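Sequence only, no structure available. Ideas?
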Amino acid sequence: MRMRPTLSWTPGDDLPPGTTDPGPVTDALSVGGVLVLSGAGISTESGIPDYRGEGGSLSRHTPMTYQEFTADAQARRRYWARSHLGWRTFGRARPNDGHRAVAAFGRHGRLSGVITQNVDSLHQAAGSEAVVELHGSLDRVVCLSCGTFSPRRELAVRLDEANAGFAPVATEINPDGDADLTDEQVGDFRVVPCTVCGGILKPDVVFFGESVPPQRVEHCRELVREATSLLVLGSSLTVLSGLRFVRQAAEAKKPVLIVNQDPTRGDRHAVTRVALPLGATLSAVAYRLGIPLDDDVVAGRRNGA
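Reply:
I predicted one. C-alpha cells follow.
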C-alpha cells in the first residue's frame, strides 16, 4: 500500500495565541536583512485558494503525488486534463497587495531574500527579484527522460491542438494549478510527449511525495544563515519543506515572525504570529515605514508603459 504524504496538521492547545499587532514585523523590516518565506496564503487574495484554513482545497482535493504521476498513465492523463484547464485560470491571476508589499520591501533594501513555496510566480510578477521557488514553477515543463525544459505556454498550445473542443467548466482551482474535474469531464483527453525524445512531460514543480532538490535546499539554508530574521507569510508550515527553515532560524536565535490568520506548525518557534489578513497588514507595515507599494517605474512596466 502506497503511503500518502502528510497533508494535514492539528494545532495543539499549547500554542501561543496570535496577535493583531504588526509592530514586531514593522520593527524587523526597519532593521533590514529580513528573509521572507511565503506560502499559499499570500496568493488567496489573487483568487488562488489556500490548501488549508477555512475553505482550503485539501478539504475536497488531494494533490497528485510523484509516485502516482510516474507510475500510472491514466493518472497522468487525469492530471494533465485538470492542470491544462487550471492553467488557463491560473495564468490570469495577478499579484495582490501582499505580493506588491514584498516587492516594495525588496526594492527599498529591507529584505535579504525571498523563498516561496508557491508555484504561481506572482512574486516575480509583482517585481520581486531573485525569488527562490522552493517547489518550482508551473511556468516550466521538464521531460523526465531527457531533462529538457520548455515553457508551459508552448505545451498549452500543443495540448489545445491535441484536444480541440476541450472546454469543461471546473468547480474549483487549487494552489497547485490543478482544476477539479470529474472523470466524465476528463473524457478521452490526449497527453502529448516530449518533442525531443518522446518521453513523459511533467510540470517543473515538486509534487507531494517528491523531494526538493538538495542544492535548492542548501541555497535556502544559506539564505537563512545570512538573514537577520525570518518573516513567514501565509504558510501553515505543515510540511517539512518550509518548517525546516523556521527551525533553523530559531535554533540560530534569529527572530521568526509569522503573518497568518490561522495557527501554524511554526508558532512555537516564533516571537509572534500576526493573525490578520496579509494584504492589508503588509500594506499597513509599508505605510508605517514610508515605503510605497508601487514605484512609478515598476507600475509603468507592469501596465506595459
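Residues 73-90 form the longest helix (18 residues).
Hope that gets you unstuck.
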